[in-house]
Write a structure and sequence with these properties.
heterotetramer; A mainly alpha; B alpha/beta; C mainly alpha; D mainly alpha; D: mainly alpha
Chain lengths: 60, 250, 253, 238
């Protein structure tokens, strides 16, 4: 249910659309990339942590 | 030297160092861990230990340059190093491996600058007296840049003695000195050790042991050994030193 | 996995859903009125230039030109406000660190700065695109953009300074001091459009239609959730890093 | 022998200032390097403007160019002044003496301000002869120009001394100072350039713009020096 005033207006100007889409897309993809990057780093660290903990246990 | 300075004299029965539960940590890393010891005035304390044992940190805390972590109780000459730092600074001096002098000022200008910082009135007479004591009167008007290492270190001693400190810190004072300059420094320290308390950090075991009245070994921020030299078992001391420092002792 | 981390991940998912919802609401339910139209006999808001005369539908009412690009508002402003808020939190932690000298405050301050920086970059990108769509230029040196740009540079400087100091505690102290000084720019950037006349629209000054306000608030809440989640994830990562270092040290001894 | 102690912060401040001036007069290190650098910047300005043509109104950008030269030169001197303290560990001796930390800040900052003013006495007339002597514009009184430069210099010396105390302990000293200094003094530069340009072009009603901008610059100085005063203890002891 698109608001009637909007449909009328959308017919007039659509030239801003690429910028709106790009803004949303870059924002979203950027945040996703950042979080993914962080999570992979954390997974790697988790592996290293278990490795080190095993080594410490062996020493004892 | 009778003195009527209006800087408070330190009473004889006040402990020079009263360190209780001194801890210095950042995050989980502890540079000093529950260090506790006491030292009376007019003693000479040598601090030994491997690199990274916390010797310099300990010295900097005692000299009010670094703050201890919460829960520590450190009193130097009766002053709390955190609360009374400002008052304490009038009573302490530091001789370091750095000369702590401005190379582009003359010997006299250097001393006069520090005299002004300490608010010493009648500084002229005091400066002449000190330059005479360290045998640098003839270089009074020369800039420090032209001095040899040994001369700089002597001037550095004069700068330290300028405000008549009761407690003098020595931070690796021999590093970079040739044997002759070291001997001069030794003689100068020997001449004033009755009236002053010394705390020295040094890698030079023989010299440190010879000069000191008390020895302290630090390892991993903890006190491993703290003994009066009178009661110190030399062999045990050397064994402990070898063990913690990991260097052969001749 | 700790409880806090679980909450963070759940918040991240909810935040993502909320901002996406707000994005669609911005197109489907939000009225353009208020932002998109003005009555011609009233003084014009400089922020929104009029559309070309050929496009004007009726007498008395004029459409402002950038009404589609205005949709960027629903994610540009929430990200920007979140960045100000997170920067402020970083400054508070910096102050706490200077007072208490406890490493945990420094770590929190640094991580909040990182999170704020991610949001600042996001604001910059969406902002530049909006500027291009609405004003026809990629960049304009007007007060809000300038102060915000300076804020971004100051944040970069914060990390550069920290990394160039060898001693860990000294780096923390310098970082905290610089964070506090740099933070002065945040409220300045926030209020400057209200002090100096500028091209940049001032939100909430002219009032907002409810249909506009709802997606905006949803997006704002979503963004804050994402910001919090990123912050918690980074804190967890940092504590893992610390544990690894500690274990390595223990193994070497 | 008797001896009295009379520790006063003002005497300590004077001692630090006096020492810096004596050292500088002896080596002339900062003044020559800053003066020569300023001269080089002026030459580069000439190259940059050489193709601008005769219709070009140099008055419009003169204020900005002048301040830019001063900012670049100041950064050179700010770093040197703190490196002196760091070199032989003198800063430690200063910190070990009964001196309030802000006294050190004011001593160094006022020293830097004096050197900055000396360099300006050299480059401002030079700038006038090189770029402005052919100008037809009737400018405002010279004391207004000097006052604006002074207010600007106070901010630059204050913020710069504060930041140089940090940057001197980092690797890559000069770059670190620049990246902290330029964004932080940005607002000051903006208003001082506005004030300078108002005086130089002397458009109708320029005094109003001038005093508004000068008030803003003075406000910046007061706020920043207060902040530096409050935070100096933390950075110098770190």
């Amino acid at each position: 249910m698109i608001d009637p005033t909007n449909t009328e207006l959308y017919d007039l100007v659509l030239q801003d659309a690429p910028f709106v889409i790009a803004a949303y897309g870059i924002l979203w993809l950027g945040l996703c990339a950042y979080v993914t990057f962080m999570l992979t780093r954390m997974l790697k660290m988790g592996k290293e942590l278990t490795l080190l903990e095993d080594a410490v246990d062996k020493l004892k | 030297m009778a003195s009527t300075e209006n800087k408070d004299r330190i009473a004889e029965d006040v402990l020079a160092l009263d360190v209780a539960h001194l801890t210095r940590k950042f995050g989980v890393r502890k540079a000093l861990d529950d260090v506790t010891f006491q030292l009376e005035q007019h003693r000479f304390l040598s601090i030994f230990g491997p690199n990274g044992a916390g010797k310099t940190t300990l010295l900097r805390i005692l000299a009010t340059l670094t703050a201890p972590s919460q829960g520590s109780d450190v009193t130097v000459l009766g002053f709390d190093v955190v609360k009374d730092a400002f008052a304490l600074r009038e009573h302490i001096g530091l001789i370091s491996h750095n000369p702590l002098l401005y190379p582009d000022l003359t010997a006299e200008e250097n001393l006069r600058f520090f005299a002004q910082l300490y608010g010493i009135t009648g500084a002229d007479a005091r400066i002449d007296e000190l330059l005479d004591a360290v045998e640098l009167t003839h270089r009074k008007l020369d800039i420090v840049r032209t001095f040899s290492r040994g001369m700089t270190q002597r001037l550095s001693l004069a700068r330290t003695l300028l405000p008549r400190p009761e407690l003098i810190f020595l931070d690796e004072p021999y590093s970079g000195l040739d044997p002759h300059a070291s001997d001069i420094l030794d003689a100068l320290i020997d001449g004033i050790r009755d009236k002053h308390t010394f705390v020295m950090v040094s890698h030079d075991l023989e010299r440190g042991l010879e000069l000191c009245s008390h020895a302290l070994i630090l390892a991993r921020g903890k006190v491993v050994l703290f003994e009066d030299k009178e009661t110190l078992d030399s062999d045990l001391f050397r064994a402990t030193y070898r063990e913690t420092v990991g260097l052969g002792v001749s | 996995m700790s409880k806090q981390l679980k909450i963070a991940i759940i918040l991240m998912v909810i935040g993502a859903l909320l901002t996406t919802l707000a994005f669609f609401m911005a197109f489907y339910t939000a009225r353009v009125q208020g932002f998109g139209t003005v009555v011609s006999d009233q003084p014009l808001d400089t922020a929104f230039a009029l559309a070309p005369p050929s496009m004007q539908p009726t007498d008395g009412i004029a459409y402002e030109r950038p009404w589609l690009s205005q949709k960027i508002f629903y994610f540009h402003v929430p990200v920007a406000e979140a960045s100000f808020l997170i920067f402020t939190i970083a400054a508070i932690f910096a102050l706490l660190f200077l007072l208490r000298k406890d490493k945990k405050y420094d770590t929190r301050s640094r991580i909040a700065m990182e999170t704020a920086f991610v949001f600042v970059v996001a604001t910059m990108i969406t902002g530049v695109l909006w500027t291009r769509a609405s004003w026809g230029v990629w960049w304009d040196w007007e007060p809000r953009l300038t102060t915000y740009f300076i804020m971004m540079i100051l944040m970069i400087a914060y990390f550069v300074v920290r990394n160039s100091v060898g001693d860990e505690e000294r780096a923390a102290t310098y970082g905290a001091v610089f964070c506090l000084i740099a933070w002065v720019d945040a409220p300045l950037s926030f209020i400057i459009t209200r002090l100096i006349p500028s091209n940049h629209p001032v939100v909430f000054q002219s009032g907002m239609d409810t249909t506009n306000l709802i997606p905006f608030i949803i997006a704002q809440i979503g963004m804050l959730m994402i910001g919090y989640a990123i912050y918690v994830l980074r804190v967890t990562e940092e504590s893992m890093h610390e544990r690894i270092e500690l274990l390595k040290e223990r193994l070497e001894a | 022998m008797s001896e009295k102690r009379n520790i006063s912060s003002f005497d300590q401040f004077r001692a630090i200032l006096h020492k810096d001036i004596v050292m500088e007069l002896r080596t002339k290190e900062m003044l020559t390097s800053m003066g020569l650098y300023a001269l080089l910047v002026l030459i580069i300005y000439y190259v940059a403007l050489s193709q601008a043509g005769s219709a070009f109104e140099v008055e419009r950008i003169a204020g900005g160019l002048l301040l830019l030269a001063i900012v670049f030169t100041s950064m050179l001197g700010l770093n040197r002044s703190l490196v002196h303290e760091k070199d032989q560990g003198c800063l430690e001796a200063l910190l070990l003496s009964p001196v309030d930390r802000p006294v050190i800040f004011f001593g160094k900052a006022v020293g830097n301000l004096i050197f900055l003013i000396l360099v300006q006495i050299l480059i401002v007339p030079l700038f006038y002869f090189i770029f402005m002597s052919g100008s037809q514009v009737q400018s405002g009184p010279w004391w207004m120009l000097a006052l604006a430069l002074l207010v600007g210099s106070i901010g630059i010396a204050g913020v710069g001394t504060f930041l140089a105390t940090m940057s001197v302990n980092t690797t890559g000293t000069d770059f670190i100072l620049a990246i902290m200094f330029i964004p932080l003094v940005f607002p000051l530069l903006l208003v001082v350039v506005a004030a300078l340009t108002a005086v130089i072009t002397a458009d109708a009603g320029y005094t109003q713009v001038y005093w508004t901008m000068l008030a803003a610059a003075a406000g910046y100085d007061v706020i920043m020096i207060a902040v530096a005063f409050a935070l100096y203890e933390f950075i110098i002891g770190a």
